[in-house]
Amino acid sequence: MQDVNSQIVACIPNLRRYARGLTRNREAADDLVQDTLERAWRRIALWQRRGDLRAWLFSILHNLFIDEVRSQRASPEEAMPREEHSIPARASQTDMLEVRDLDRALLQLPPDQRAVLLLVAVEQMTYEQVGAALGVPLGTVMSRLSRARARLREVLEGRDHAPRIKVVK
After folding, report:
1. Which of 48, 62, 106, 128 is 20 to 30 A distant from 84 in Cα terms?
2. What span, in angstroms and rounded, lies between the C-alpha atoms of 8 and 54?
3. How does pLDDT run across 38-94, given as a tens digit for each residue?
């Protein structure tokens, strides 16, 4: 049991980073991680050492986040106010501008695409782990990731156009 507890504790920084990416608010992210850890320790018997513990924790966190969004009946950006976070000073001002642009571009992604992109790119989870964490098939993970990357590229290159509406007569 001590080994499982230490594995859970080792995942806390990653859970916090993912929660911050989803909520865009430090306090909301900390609350989300706390709720995740509470649920995980309370239901550790349900895990029964099947599958990846890390994916199971991310799955709990993601499901709690989705439940919160649904309960507020608003988009995640409206449900949880975005905090202005301080970015450590870098040697170059352009680096800071690029980080700000990337942050804004990430906010323009739909929540399901942003979640997959954050888990793959930031948390370096495998597609299988992401699928297990989000409860979606491998093909859905790959599709969402592809769409997220394409959309992010469009936004960052300044080709951010509204979707064209096809008129049907």
Report:
1. 62
2. 8
3. 998 888 877 766 678 888 899 899 999 988 888 876 544 544 455 555 555 545 566
Instruction: Tell me whether residue 26 is in a domain.
Output: yes
Considering the domain boundaries, does residue 164 fall inside one?
A: no
Q: Which residues contact 57 (CB under 8 A, 6 or more apart)?
A: 8, 11, 15, 36, 40
The answer to whether residue 167 is domain-embedded is no
Assess contact for 58 and 122: CB atoms under 8 A: no
Contact 51, 132 (CB under 8 A): yes
pLDDT (average), residues 113-135: 91
Question: Mean of the pLDDT values across residues 151-157?
Answer: 86
State the pLDDT at residue 76. Answer: 46
Output the CA–CA distances (angstroms, integers) from residue 158 to 9, 38, 53, 148, in the order listed: 41, 42, 40, 15
The letter for the amino acid at 154 is E
User: At 93, which CATH number?
Assistant: 1.20.140.160
Q: CB of 39 within 8 A of CB of 145?
A: no
Host domain of residue 47: 2-156
pTM: 0.62
What DSSP state is assigned to residue 24? S
